[in-house]
Amino acid sequence: xxxxxxxxxxxxxxxxxxxxxxxxxxxxxxxxxxxxxxxxxxxxxxxxxxxxxxxxxxxxxxxxxxxxxxxxxxxxxxxxxxxxxxxxxxxxxxxxxxxxxxxxxxxxxxxxxxxxxxxxxxxxxxxxxxxxxxxxxxxxxxxxxxxxxxxxxxxxxxxxxxxxxxxxxxxxxxxxxxxxxxxxxxxxxxxxxxxxxxxxxxxxxxxxxxxxxxxxxxxxxxxxxxxxxxxxxxxxxxxxxxxxxxxxxxxxxxxxxxxxxxxxxxxxxxxxxxxxxxxxxxxxxxxxxxxxxxxxxxxxxxxxxxxxxxxxxxxxxxxxxxxxxxxxxxxxxxxxxx
Length: 338
Description:
Elements: H1 2-11, E1 16-32, E2 35-53, E3 56-62, H2 67-87, E4 101-105, H3 117-131, E5 137-155, E6 160-178, E7 181-192, H4 196-200, H5 203-219, H6 234-246, H7 251-255, E8 276-278, E9 301-305, E10 308-309, H8 316-322
Parallel strand pairs: 4-6
Antiparallel strand pairs: 1-2, 1-5, 2-3, 5-6, 6-7, 8-9, 9-10
Helix pairs in contact: 1-2, 3-5
């Protein structure tokens, strides 16, 4: 059936087509000040289809794998691509990548689906109890989220790829009040994997430590204004690099003229010793993945070396436009996003 949808796209005039099927299972639990606010389990399936016609993209999606919806989506995508091509500027050229045939699942050591809901709720209650050791706690919210994601990708070039992974996250948001001053502190523990993550890093212990951080914030004076040298912890460093540099390194933003890094490859932008990687292969990390959503293998890439800008984060399209090598960074929000 899926092969037939690709065949229809190529017969309809596409020079390239890919079909991405996404199957997601999820659980979310939330407690606010001891009261259960959310307990939701769900499953979702859908697909997204991209076609290139006359150098322009067309895209369509559906929330099922119904054969008739699939054929209709192909026709919609072809029509959209033809309509877009009339107004398009530079035609899309995809950088070449190897054809892949692989079935890969990153299996958690302790599958969260094998853990009872009651045990997950108990963990959240223990996190709340730890938070309540603060003398000045005004409110606390704890939450748990898990998700299993399975992607099947077929391309007109011959790639046939299936890969899957599981993520778990435990959160606590502590809000305190002291002498008219309010402040908050958040705890987040999780990543790609299962409940074994919480054995390596206990969310309850992290919440206990957060109490001290909250009390420090509530008792802290106002920071002085002006420019000065700052000592930044690893978490804040990650946020700064992600927001100020990471997004600016996305090649689609560069091509759109919306990045401060446009035209600055090879330029020294930071001090000696500042080297920045984008690495989706880190085991257990939140952003880890084996393949991107175009079927390009995830890889560690150096974006800045000793202060010099060396590369951008690429899809096949942006790599083709800029004459760079694709580096496995094409990501879609879900099956309904191109």
